[in-house]
Amino acid sequence: MRLNWAIIGTGTIANEMATSFLKKNKNIYAVCGRNIDKMQQFADKYHIEKQFIKLEALLSDEHVDAVYIATPHNTHFEIAKQALLHDKHVLIEKAIVVNRDELNELNNIAYNRNLMIMEAMTLLHMPLIKKVKSLVTAGALGDIKTINVTFGSHKPYDVKNRFFNPDLAGGALLDIGGYAFTAARYFMSEQPTNVSSFVNYFETGVDEQSATIISNSKNELATVSLSMQAKQPKALTISGTKGYIRVLEFPRAQEATWYHTETKTCEVIIGGNTDDALVYEVEDFEDAIENPNQIKVYNDMTADVFSIFHTIQTEWQSNN
Hints:
By secondary structure, the chain is of the alpha/beta class. 37% of the residues lie in helices and 29% in strands. Helix 4 runs parallel beside helix 5, helix 5 packs antiparallel against helix 10 and helix 8 crosses helix 10. The longest helix is centred in the last third of the chain and has 28 residues. The chain is globular.
């Protein structure tokens, strides 16, 4: 399928996506941005035909088939809602929205208008992660017992930085938590039924770091550690009765280590290419337009993660 894409936003991730579009000969038809000079530079760099300052003008263009939203995540809901109401397919950078109610509303609009909406979560589209999922599902690790995920960034101490700004939906959970909790949920055989979370806040009131334990009725237990001011490895470990698989840099990984408990040996699993992470994402999105059952898999995963977020945020509020 060849779509006419529009990119909303011109920041770092928008540039990465535009590069990936061109790499695979995808058609970037339009771009929308608030800064005219920056938008023009973006359009020139990626050979984009149309430039729009006003979102309404872009969405009213009948030649636009799909939009990629790369603005701060506190703006995602309103932009995505308007895009869906203009009958555009929507791919949205993580975090797709800031709470479960917004997600449900967007999903309902998309369903009623026969449109596709998906969170741009590279993890779910990496060939390596799909290969690991197949091994886990086939029982290669035996019964899954624990899943451990760590993800820590070191953001400069700056109260004005968007990562620490509550008005911009800052905090670790919505910034890096999507990757971590998606990884944990993806390798659990069913949705968690128990959630216990501990949090430390930055002076602005956003969550600076947290540790969370989730479990389900299959006795699968996952721990997730997040931090915005302490660098941690982006590490995912899935452990079962027959061994474990450890994935470093898991959001865009191309290699993992598989340890076999019985033989006490290790092997390397390889799949895909880190540099093509956004390409895999877009290709899966376009394929899903013709295969709605597949997009349901991605959207159900996102819904499960936001249900976990809702429980965590509720617990934090009650303990604060």
